Amino acid sequence: MCRPTSTHHHRKSNKKQKRHHTSNKENYQSNNTDLVTMAEDAIGHQETPHSSLLRNLGPDTLLHSPTENRTAPVSQILTPGKVTLFYFSAYWCGPCKKVTPILKEWYLSMKGQREKYEDFELVYVSLDAFEKEYQFYTKDMPWWCLPFNSPIASQLSQQYNTGGGIPSLVVVDADGETILHKDAVPSIVGGHGSEFPWRPQPIMKLLPETYEQNNEILPTSQLDDKYLMIFAGGHWCEPCRGFATKLSKAYEALKQRRNDFEILYLSSDLDEDAFLDFSSSMPFGAIPYEYRDAKMNIASKYSIAQLPTVVMLGPVSPLDGYERPIINIDVRSIFEESDSSSRYLQEFPYPPQRCGDFNRTTEDINNIKAVVVFDEYCDDCEQEDVEEAMQCAAEAYHQQPQQSQGGDLKFFWVHKPTSFSQTLRGALKLPDRNSSAQSVTACTSPIMVMLDFPDNGGYYVANVNEMDEDDLTTTSILEFVKNPGPRLSIM
């Protein structure tokens, strides 16, 4: 039940006996005002995302122009109305050395055509290992550069999730917040630099007019009123081949129940023969291999960085510029589970959950902030109470429009030990029953953590020694969100 307070500790006398529950809804509603207040406090005390580039960088942070041999503060360079490009690179990186001359040529060409394009500035974010290499690498750069070993570099890398590799060119709109392109390097190297600043286009403009299915050429427009899943994969990718078999089986099972959806294969195959071989084994549609630009633009639009990925989109909305709303950025895990048939049949169209079983979430934990309760070794009654407390905390938290200021927050529980949850326990250095060094109490009591992996692997742990199942209430969860304690890191 949703318990804003914990005044009666009667469960310990008979844990296995199911207790008499008063109406959970009545209990929650009667304390709704208190919980909302708690949620507001929790939200208000969280660190808020930076609302502008100047706040991110610090208006007095100095940038250097090597070719002009002058230095100026950020506030004088990144003035209102300018698009900003952050170039993450380093001298020691071989691919970077190849990209930098191409980027330099593009930059000078664009600056020479100011009347045709939006005004912009490019800032080099150094990931160089040595200052001498930094000096050598930047001496001919025509754009602005952050100083060597600047603490701002790691901050920007964290904010724009560039940990996947360099070179990377992040494009931020003139409002200082909207990311127009997570990595424009492929666009520039691929000859699409004239499309700057690469403002997102509706999916309807990116998809070709036709798609292939069962040796037929069909009009893409006939899918407008259907849900659409984009399956990004490639024949060369071994996990993709295994996943394609599962997805094909799920597709055929779903088609027996409903006809309001379609799947299109987005090919990352190395050549057309591989594409034809792979796509012919699938019962759903495919974007023709020849449309390489469409493939690149769609992958960029939905930030598809790994294979396989399945993006779930809603039907075309005439009220939203004929765009398809994003329902879930990756539903791959729903189809991967060995016992997932009930999920993909019953949970369609797979919206992301704000609260639920951590072992079944479709979220990438590296990109979200979440409260997680590990209660694998608690009994059924205790686990039921954890679910109810978490559901009420999630509801109270997300009732507040101000929650967007503190960032989205998920609420999950872990009822069963899996290889995934056990690996996470180990990474977080949490007590585990399999370790003889841990006390029985620490292992059988619920453990609450808050994951903030986007913040350089950050996380927080509630006081394990003081928590038992009766301490885990809606109020205590929200209080933990408000005051999570010392920051830890898996790094």
From TrEMBL:
InterPro entries registered for this protein in UniProt: Thioredoxin-like_fold (IPR012336), Thioredoxin-like_sf (IPR036249), Thioredoxin_domain (IPR013766)
Molecular-function GO terms, alphabetical: thioredoxin-disulfide reductase (NADPH) activity
UniProt-annotated stretches for the region Disordered: 1-32, 47-68
Record-annotated Thioredoxin domain positions: 52-208
One Gene Ontology CC term in the entry: nucleus
A GO BP entry: negative regulation of Wnt signaling pathway
Biased composition (Basic residues): 1-22
Highest taxon above the source species: Eukaryota
Signal peptide as annotated in the record: none
Alphabetical list of Pfam families matching this protein: Thioredoxin_8
PANTHER family in UniProt: NUCLEOREDOXIN
Official protein name in the record: Thioredoxin domain-containing protein
